Amino acid sequence: MKTTAIYVRVSTDRQAQAQTIEQQLERLKAHLETEGETLSAENIFRDDGYSGASLNRPGLDQLRDRVRRSVLNRVIITSPDRLARNYVHQMVLIEELERAGCSVEFLDRPMSQDPHDQLLLQIRGAVAEYERVLIAERMRRGRQLRLRSGTMLPWTLPPYGYRSAPDCPRDPSSVHIEPAEGAIVRELFAQYLRDKETLLSLAKHLLSLGLPSPRGKPRWSAASLRGILTNPVYTGRLHIGRTRSRPARIRRSATHPLGKPARGQDATPPEQWEIAGAVPALITQEEFERVQAKLALNKKQAARNNKAHRYLLRALVSCGACQSACISRTTNRGQSYYACRCLSQPNYSLHDQRCRSRYVPADQLDAIVWKDLCELMLQPE
Question: Could you say which of 3.30.70.2120, 3.90.1750.20, 3.30.430.20, 3.20.20.140 is the CATH number of the domain covering 162-247+263-301?
């Protein structure tokens, strides 16, 4: 037996707290009561704090799955922009639902197959999309002005070693040093400047001391340590424009499932940074520059930058035993392998013990993959 469902959505957590989603529910339930139809809890689909610019919403996914199973024959929504802000997304969703035998109705503007109603829906979708872009651009410009004037912090969460007032977390005047974490940051900079000290040795030292990572985990990763050692905020200066967002180039691991498209960050040259205020300093500028010079030298001399052998599957192989990424390695005898990262350095992979997987000969694996790829290209069927 088919039945009716309702879908409600708000874009931000602030709107959810303001009960706007409850107002949508009340309107939709009252409409169904006037029609003499009851509504069960399982036919209420809601997304609290999800943007209408994306289709990646759990409540919407559940609704689409139910419609695909031919359980629902009608969906009622307050307005088209609650379904999606993008007109193309609206048309995709409406066509998908109607193709499965489920009609879509809007309270604010009942839709029919009349050309005038279809034109009005297109216009409203275009206006909603324009409004979303306009609001986002105004907010971005407003944030830039406040950042450059020094009246707003360039972070939502303070860096490791700092705290800010809970009631005004982005007020620069409320930033203060957390004594215990601040002492750890000073020790990290001082210890890294010692001879033969590396990021891995720092991680092992912190593990032996039992000090949790910034995220509360028992192990520190090299990425977390590098993030601290390269952050100029510890010199007492706030900078904006240190990174630029971009789409992710590759997947982190071939064994990890595909999901929401990730994004990466590209570092910008220091001359493009802008100073946007000051906070209490933990180290001197001279000490920070010495650490940057050593980081650059260690990166240049790292074994992973060996280019003696060209690996066909570099950064594409993952361990089937522990799902860690595999690194390419060439022995002193000139033999090339793909080796699980956890096999040589389990601390980098956040594991307790070394992986028991074996080295994979690079030439053999490259040949197998290349042969399979050629067969797929020549005989796709």
Answer: 3.90.1750.20
